[in-house]
Structure to design on (364 residues):
């Protein structure tokens, strides 16, 4: 009898020892990395040939051309790039706003480079009149969540017949500000 | 039993907390996704107006070297004409002045008249010649197209009262921006 009781007790202890009901000691560790996304889209410009002289003695052309505006987008998301412009005339130190003053912009289709997919506004491949804020002209869309930069070139010129309507005089300086805006889509 | 109830209460609270976190996260993430990132850059372009008006004398034609006070049309003798090219990016006035024999004699009796010109903006289209510049014609801005004007020079010998002999009439044109 004693042997049976001892055997039963041993068996019970064995079962209890092997059951998962007993708490097991576990441990874990986790590394957490946090970062703040300041900018998901970025735009940089470089411009050359920004100053032009208007002289009626050399008035054989209908347009006054500026140097190209070269832009580069950086994005980790889809985005749209727009352009708008303002103009002002400085006469003897007095600055007065004028309309866009005949400024025209064109996206150079040969100037596109980059691996990110882009879709350009076909109309802007021909010279279009620049619009004043808050209006804006869509140049192209791109990115589509590909973190790659796209380079683009915009040509700028002034229709001199329209510039005349600003009633300019010798010594006046007309300043155009071409505003490029990139917006996350 | 009391211990079991406490455990159940704690477990329920923890589950509520988890559900609350998940619900808040589900609401908060789309709201964050609607925030657009944007930035802009601007390019400055300038145009400086160097020369706003230009006048050129293209031709001096039909110069009459003899004025006969007794000839036909003696009241208004056609001396010759001058073809001008004018252009400007603003409104402008063309002035005319003259001297006779380098200023030694008066220019009375001589006048200039615009014979041919695109539409003009201002009278007079003719002017008596003198040492001081006087307006001949004016135009509104229509640059960049140059406009040609033909200006005739006429003489009234009875008013000129010049002595017989050779005289030299020097005609000067000037162009002024008009405010």
């Amino acid at each position: 009898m004693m042997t049976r009781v001892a055997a039963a007790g041993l068996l019970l202890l064995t079962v209890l020892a092997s059951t998962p009901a007993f708490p097991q000691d576990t441990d874990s560790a986790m590394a957490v990395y946090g970062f703040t996304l300041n900018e998901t889209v970025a735009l940089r410009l470089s411009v050359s040939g920004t100053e032009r002289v208007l002289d009626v003695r050399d008035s054989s052309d209908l347009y006054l051309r500026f140097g190209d505006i070269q832009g580069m987008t950086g994005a980790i998301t889809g985005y749209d790039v727009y352009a708008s412009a303002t103009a002002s005339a400085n006469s003897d130190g007095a600055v007065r706003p004028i309309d866009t003053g005949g400024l025209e912009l064109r996206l150079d289709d040969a100037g596109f480079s980059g691996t990110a997919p882009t879709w350009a506004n076909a109309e802007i491949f021909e010279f279009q009149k620049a619009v004043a804020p808050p209006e804006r002209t869509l140049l192209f869309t791109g990115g589509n969540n590909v973190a790659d930069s796209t380079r683009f070139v915009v040509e700028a010129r002034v229709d001199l017949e329209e510039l005349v309507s600003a009633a300019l005089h010798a010594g006046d300086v007309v300043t155009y500000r071409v505003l490029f805006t990139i917006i996350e889509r | 039993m009391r211990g079991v109830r406490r455990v159940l209460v704690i477990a329920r609270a923890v589950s509520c907390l988890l559900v609350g976190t998940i619900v808040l996260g589900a609401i908060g993430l789309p709201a964050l996704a609607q925030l657009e990132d944007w930035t802009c850059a601007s390019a400055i372009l300038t145009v400086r107006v160097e020369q706003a008006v230009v006048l050129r004398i293209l031709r001096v034609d039909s110069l009459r070297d003899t004025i006969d006070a007794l000839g036909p049309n003696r009241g208004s003798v056609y001396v010759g004409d001058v073809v001008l090219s004018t252009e400007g990016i603003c409104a402008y006035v063309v002035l005319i002045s003259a001297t006779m024999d380098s200023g030694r004699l008066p220019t009375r009796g001589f006048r200039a008249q615009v014979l041919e010109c695109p539409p003009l903006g201002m009278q007079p289209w003719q002017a008596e010649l003198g040492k001081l510049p006087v307006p001949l014609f004016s135009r509104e801005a229509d640059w960049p197209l140059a406009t040609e004007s033909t200006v005739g020079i006429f003489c009234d010998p009875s008013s000129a009262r010049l002595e017989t002999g050779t005289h030299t009439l020097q005609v000067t044109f000037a162009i002024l921006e008009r405010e």
Q: What stands out?
A: The longest strand of chain B covers residues 38-51.
